[in-house]
Request: fold
Amino acid sequence: MLRIAIQAKGRLNEKTVALLADAGISASIGSRSLIAHAKGFPVDLLLLRDDDIPQAVAMGTADIGIVGLNEVMEKDADVVRVLDLGFGGCRLSLAVPREADYKDLGWFEGKRIATSYPAILSRFLKEKNINAKIHTITGSVEIAPAVGMADSIFDIVSSGGTLIQNGLVEVASVVESQAVLIATPGLPTDKQEELDKLCFRFRSIIESRGMKYVLMNLPKVSLDEAIKVLPGMKSPTILPLADSDWVSVHAVIPESQLWERIEKLKAIGAEDILVLVLENIVK
Ligand code: ATP
Ligand code: MG
Reply:
């Protein structure tokens, strides 16, 4: 039975639990429990702080885990990065006070940088040949310059709103991160097989995210035009209708392009357009 480490609570917890549920794995997770037995797939869930997940997986306490790539890199954990999961996106960036006279990375020479990611930062500074003082703090890194604890910060940024609120400007993005599935190196065959099955489910869920299934009735004369608008996964599916002047066209469209394409399709005569949620794409 696979044991999977996930964040007990925090930013990754909800989407992790949702991904597991979409993959058919549900568990009733009590607020204080450390381990939950899942239904639907032979896995136990180990609920941890995200900081502890890379090490738990490296040591084999958990066989696999879901955690931010930033934590995996910071802990330099000996784990296999199995799959990028497409949520929890953020970056680790250097930021300086708005009024700083910043031109390039040379600014950081001799400066104090507050961070919760000292290992990633010191690797970066070494690579760039910059001597700076790293102040490791665990919370509220962004207030460090204002209270005089540091000259600048190295921290997680997603929208950038927190930086602006604290009078800081992002000057260099060092690492791009997202939630990743990691595994203990050299899992025994039976566990590797279970992991492969799980990955297959995760991939099909991730691929279907942001995609819509669209079907419509279309005058046959507009078919060539419609095919140009609707590349689909291979090509759109065309089904005959009882009225031989019309066809039914089905296609998968990225959500970001949905309305633009629908407008084009309407313009060439498409009618009765249905947009459906796509749950899985199994390849
Ligand atoms: P824990 O109690 O598990 O140690 P935490 O407080 O260290 O939790 P969270 O704030 O819950 O961590 O963030 C978990 C992960 O979410 C981060 O390590 C990062 O990978 C990702 N993340 C995505 N966007 C953001 C963001 N704007 N701020 C912080 N983390 C983010
Ligand atoms: Mg943490």
Q: What stands out?
A: The first strand starts at residue 2 and ends at 7.
